[in-house]
Amino acid sequence: MRASLIQIDVKPDEPVESRRSRAADLVREQSGADLVVLPELWTVGAFAFEEFAAHAEPLDGPTSAAMSDAARDAGVWLHAGSVVERGEGGALYNTALLFAPSGALHRTYRKIHRFGFDRGEVKVMTAGKEIVTARLESPDVTLGLATCYDLRFPEQFRLLTDAGAEIIVLPAGWPARRRAHWSLLVRARAVETQTYVLACGTAGTHAGVEQAGYSVVLDPWGEVVAEAGAGEQVLTADFDPARVAETREQFPVLRDRVLGLPTPPPRA
C-alpha cells in the first residue's frame, strides 16, 4: 500500500480559494498512491478560532466539491483533512472528510476532543460523539479516524482498535512548541494499538502559531517508516497492512487487556 501525506503550508497571506486549488492540484499529483491525507483545518488554520464561523461550510460545500473532484481525478482514497462544518442548527464541528476514488464522500468524522481549555476551539465548536472507522474496498483495509488533540486520549484509540482499525489516520494542526509531545504520542498510539499510524500535520503559521510539521508514518511496532521535516512537503511511504495481523500474532499483547476494572473512589 502507498500513502502520501500532504504537509501543506498554511500561509497567512494566501487566500483560502487559492490554497484549496493548490491542495487539489497536489492531490492530483499523487495518482499512484492508494491513500492521500491532508492536515486538520488546512483551509483556515487550526488556531484561527475567530475565523471559524466565517469559513464554515456544509458537507457539500466548496472544499468538499474540490476534494471530491481531486480524489476522482487521481483515482485515490482521499482523507481531505478536516473543515469547519456548519451542521444542524448552525452548530460548528471540526469534521474530517474521507472520499472514495469515485469522488463520493465515503465517511465523515466529527472531532471528539476539542482543544482550548475553556477558550478557542472548545468554545466555538461542538464535540463529535461517534467513534468512526472506514472500510476501504481496495486496498482491503480498515481505517480508524481521529484528529489532532484526540491524540492525547488513548481510550479513543483502544476503541478504534476494538472496531477493527488497522491504520489510524490522524490529520493535525500541531504547534511547533509541543513537537516533542507529537513525536512521543503518535509513537505511543502505534505501539499500544499495534496499528499503522499516518499522522499528517501542517507547515507554516496559523494565526501566529508556528506549526510543527514532522508528519510521520509509523508501523505497528512504533518504528518510523517515513518522516517529514518542518516545511511544506509530500511524504510518501510504501508499507504492507498485513504486518498488523503479523505483529499482533507475534506479540499478542492486546489479548492480555484486563477490562471492567472497578472505578476508583473519588479523592477525599
From TrEMBL:
InterPro entries, from UniProt? Answer: C-N_Hydrolase, C-N_Hydrolase_sf, UPF0012_CS
Q: What are the protein's UniProt keywords?
A: Hydrolase
State any single GO MF term.
hydrolase activity
Span of domain CN hydrolase: 1-241
Q: Name one Pfam family in it.
A: CN_hydrolase
The family this protein is said to belong to: Belongs to the carbon-nitrogen hydrolase superfamily. NIT1/NIT2 family.
Name recorded for this polypeptide: Carbon-nitrogen family hydrolase
Source organism of this protein record = Streptantibioticus silvisoli
